[in-house]
Amino acid sequence: MMQDSYSATFISAEGRQYPATIFLSPVTLTIRYKNESGEQKDIYWLAERIQSMEETVLFTKLSCLSLSNKTEYLQVRDANLVAAIKKVYRDRKFVGGVYHHTLGKTRNKILLVFAIVIGLLAAAYFWLMPWIGERVAMNFSKEYEIELGESMYQATMSNAKIDSSKTRILNEFYKKLSFAVDYPVTITVIEAKEVNAFAIPGGHIVVHDAILEGMKTPEELAALLGHEASHIAKRHSLRSMFRGFARRMFILLLTGNDTGIVGYLAANADALKGLQYSRSLETEADNEGMKLMAGSGLNTEGMLQLMNMLQQEAAGKEPAAFMSTHPVFKDRLENIRAQMKNFPTPSSGNRPDLSKLFHDLYENW
Fold it and tell me: Are strands 186-190 and 204-208 parallel, antiparallel or unpaired?
């Protein structure tokens, strides 16, 4: 139930202010106040002549065009009076009216629908499309993956300078490792100043000769190849690519571009050099790489030596490309140390065949 009367401040057309008592009816808003002489005055505002209602942090101000065509004001600090005005005059234009209320509600609904659509699109972009991309990658046939990888390898090598001698030695080295990887792994060494190595779906591993310069043991080289071979075996490259490219394909679909996914991937083969893996995929490649090393009778400490070497190489310099795409974070090093305890430690020098090839690699550097 509303009150019979309320308090407010009446401001005359001349700017004089008077404490006032307010009475509301559907047709009029009555203002009762005492003038300077103490005389009680009643002013009747016709609801249809009230022009505006402005709400601020401190007060609400109403304006009305009087019958003498002068503007008068009412300054309200009482929240109950503001609420009563909105209720009594809810159909009047100055508080919104039926049309304005309907328009406001419609606008809010439109904004809500727009926000929901944007939210759904964002969810699709950040979560759904990467999930779909990974599912597509995992269901690729191996033959198709190898074919796609070969196309990407050719595109990647188009401007590369291959070191044939080192390539031959590294492939012999890898063959001697006898890693249990169900892909036809082929290694290519290219001349490049960036310390980097990366895996291409289907079996190709590209090694920059700069990453080989700092290695001191065959185990470090075996760790690098085991790590990259694990990326191939677990389809990390393909999965990471499809997660990223699925988002791009989503944008292409929204913009009406019907570029085929295979053609799109092949055209962007160069992106493999900077392909970033998630922490979970890097950790899995480390663990699987050490399993491959242990299976070949190698000391898994080579993985730790490799990471330490890469960190030392990057110290005080621009971050190595390998370090930016295969980040060596604290948890990763701790995981490698923990995993090493699960594997036996072979006696030193138990693989003279690998030591010879490792020596040959650096003999004519």
Answer: parallel
pTM exceeds 0.85: no
Q: What is the per-residue pLDDT across 175-185, written as a single tens digit (0 to 9) for each? A: 999 999 999 99
What are φ and ψ of residue 96, in 5° steps?
A: 120, -45
Sign, CA dihedral 277-281-283-286, equals: negative
Nearest to 10 by CA among 2, 1, 20: 20
Instruction: Provide the pLDDT confidence category of residue 116 given band limits of 50, 70 and 90.
Output: confident
318: nearest Cα among 196, 159, 234, 138: 196
Say if residue 65's pLDDT is above 50.
Answer: yes
The predicted-structure confidence for 266-292, as pLDDT tens digits, reads as follows: 555 555 555 556 778 888 999 999 999
The burial class, CB within 10 Å (0-12 / 13-18 / 19+), for 93 is: middle
Query: How far apart (Å, rounded) are the C-alpha atoms in residues 303 and 336?
Result: 7
Average pLDDT, the chain: 84
Q: Do the beta carbons of residue 324 and residue 271 sit within 8 Å? A: no
- Given a cut of 70, is residue 68 above it in pLDDT? yes
CB 6 within 8 A of CB 20: no
Terminus-to-terminus CA distance in the chain, angstroms?
A: 95
DSSP state of 16: -
| CA dist list (Å): 318 to 53, 59, 313, 314 | 63, 60, 10, 7
Instruction: Give 112 or 19, the one with higher predicted confidence.
Output: 19
Question: Is 275 strand, coil or helix?
Answer: coil
Q: Is the pLDDT of residue 1 over 60?
A: no
Q: Which residue has the tokens 């499809």?
A: 242
Residue at 53: amino acid letter: M
Question: Residue 214: how many CB atoms within 10 A of its CB?
Answer: 13
Q: Whole-angstrom Cα distance, residue 44 to residue 314?
A: 83
The secondary element (H helix, E strand) that includes residue 176 is helix 164-177
